[in-house]
Amino acid sequence: MLRDIREQPKETPQPAPRRISLERQRITGLPLYFQGYLSVRHSRCQEFRVYWTELRGTMLFFYDDKKAPTYSQKLDISALTSSTDVYPDENGSAQFALTLSDRELELKANDCECGKEWKGFIVTVTKLSVPLDESLQPGQLTRMHEVLEKEKKRRIALNSGSSTSLNIKSPPSSTLTTMPACFYAVSRQEATEMLEKNPSCGNLILRPGSDSKNYAISTRQELDAPCLKHYKVMSKGTSYIIELERQVTLPSLQDVVNYFVAQTRGNLKPFVLQTRTAEDPAF
User: Fold this and answer.
1) CATH of 17-166, one of 3.20.20.450, 3.30.450.20, 2.30.29.30, 2.40.50.100
2) Please, which residues bridge with residue 248 across strands?
3) pLDDT tens column, 233-245
4) What's the pTM?
5) Cα dihedral 161, 166, 172, 173 sign
């Protein structure tokens, strides 16, 4: 049968927004308070970099793409000491800076209204108080008060050790994120290059799996010769399964990392960059 020449090629299906939202919720373990595009510049960097940004709890999560299920950078803003006023730049964008106990970050929104909204939500969750800003609209203030109540309840649940009512995971340590420090939203090839070029930073990377639903561990050890290995980590319910000759099931991704470290008696060390370039700023 001849092919109908009027038939149009099918577009590649894109992930459903709800599935992306659920995946981000699962990975971060934190409630979403505000989101949108932000340009970000670390104090040591020369240029701004645009991210799709989410404010979850007192964490900012930065995504390279609006539809990416996993974040590429994150910033704990719970130790916010001050923030500047929002001011327009020569291109009409709105800039403001956040000062934390150990660093300063410059942020840029599309316009002043958006910038003031971002700053308002950030101040609300870190200071547990809605800012007194006459330029904020009644609807914006209402949402900030709603977020304030949610954040207060979240902290009470964390302090009491019960997160059932908020449907979030209790963090494995004092941090408010469920992702190990050695997690990077990179491909297999990028992880290999990171391990080869930065041996002093560690030799074990946790990264997204090729299907964006599961995870993988990439390792590099100096034996008789450099040895690179990659292991699948399947997500199943609230557990994670390491695909070894004999499957190992663990309750969290941090436990997955700890398993590799323990089994090699510390020869495998989580990869954590100490310094990053302007192209890959450390938040």
Assistant:
1) 2.30.29.30
2) 242
3) 998 888 899 999 8
4) 0.54
5) negative
